[in-house]
Amino acid sequence: MSKQRLYHLCARDAWRAAASQGRYEGSALDRSDGFIHCSTLEQVEATANRFFAGRTDLVLLTINPARIDGDLRWEAAASRDGELFPHVYGVLPLEAVLSAETWQPDRDGLFRLSVTDDTPL
């Protein structure tokens, strides 16, 4: 089992809904693909800029993989030259979320990560 933190990006409204429901079921894309897309610390900035550039409603979830109820799989992403990404099959319990922080892009519309703590859990 992975001991590194995982990261997921979601819309602020989706996170608020999850907080009231006690679990996060993923975005429409996640549900369509059958899993919740996650990233490592090294991957999350590129993911944000590729799929969410300019958005001002993002929340960055920091996840403890040991608290995930579903199946966690590391799978190749065709759009990223086969790079392995963590995918959560199932819902994400709120207990797995270590933090949920609003993440705003810089003036140029790009996201720059200020998180540097990726010490093992």
UniProtKB/TrEMBL annotation:
PANTHER family in the record: BLR1139 PROTEIN, DUF952 DOMAIN-CONTAINING PROTEIN
Gene3D superfamilies to which the protein is assigned, alphabetical: Protein of unknown function DUF952
A Pfam family: DUF952
Superkingdom classification of source: Bacteria
Name under which the protein is recorded: Uncharacterized protein
